[in-house]
What we know:
Elements: H1 3-30, H2 32-53, H3 57-62, H4 64-88, H5 91-98, H6 101-112, H7 119-134, H8 145-171, H9 177-192, H10 207-235, H11 237-241, H12 243-258, H13 265-281
Helix pairs in contact: 1-2, 1-4, 1-5, 1-10, 1-12, 2-4, 2-9, 2-10, 4-8, 4-9, 5-8, 5-12, 6-8, 7-13, 9-10, 12-13
Amino acid sequence: MKLSDILALLFLAALWGGSFLFMRIAAPVLGPVWLIEFRVLLAGLLLLPVLVHLGLWQLMRRNLMPLLLVGCLNSALPFLLLAFASVSLPAGLTSILNGTAPLFGTVVASLWLHEKLTPTRMVGFGLGFMGVVMLVGWTTIETTPRILLAMGAALMAALMYAIAAPYIKQNLGHVPSLVATTGSQLGAALVLIPALPFTVPQQVPSTGIILSVLALAGISTALAYILFFRLIQNIGSTKALTVTYLIPIFAMVWGAIILQETITLSMVCGCGLILLGTAIANDLLTFSNK
Length: 290
């Protein structure tokens, strides 16, 4: 894997790590459905003028159905599930549960794309998962039915990402990342419209909530998904999904900087295992800059 792809993977993890903070701030006020509708609609509208200016409108129209399906599997459903989880769970825990996507992705890629499950890759994923577990950083969480449901929603979101990644590689691998990002976000916004009248927010959002939504849409969605689709094209769906192992690291860092959350020893050790596992799974220890 090229050095440029490694740096893109780290940058993407930083962007998506921030998304869990933004959702944690905004979801309790706006509710999952309206928050995600704002997220995907604003992201799509931000990118649409650029797409039209570059003459890619017709290419997006020719790929409407796959873009709509990707918007559903890779944005609308997982975003909605993660926003639902964010109402009840801390941002760090939600990101940790999201870190199981590469584990799901390994199985999906093996069954769907027939990618070989080498012992080295399995060791890397195992170490990464151990690091994700260690990152929890607290001893007990009250397992009420609501908490269990929120955890299940976060895990289901990870499964959606794992299913979507190989579909993107097979059906949109030839499409520029700008087209894939814009089309899928607008498609996700279309899918969520029928649920809006039944989930109207009961509170007026504050300035902080509005800024969180704008950052979530512009930085953690529009920009992040352009990078993600490009990574899938460059390094494959399985390796691109390992970005979710790195996301909890950045989620914890952003939490410490923005929300003054404490970074514990378990977080530091967990981060080390995650970085090592990701390096092994992606063959980064022997990467080439060719």
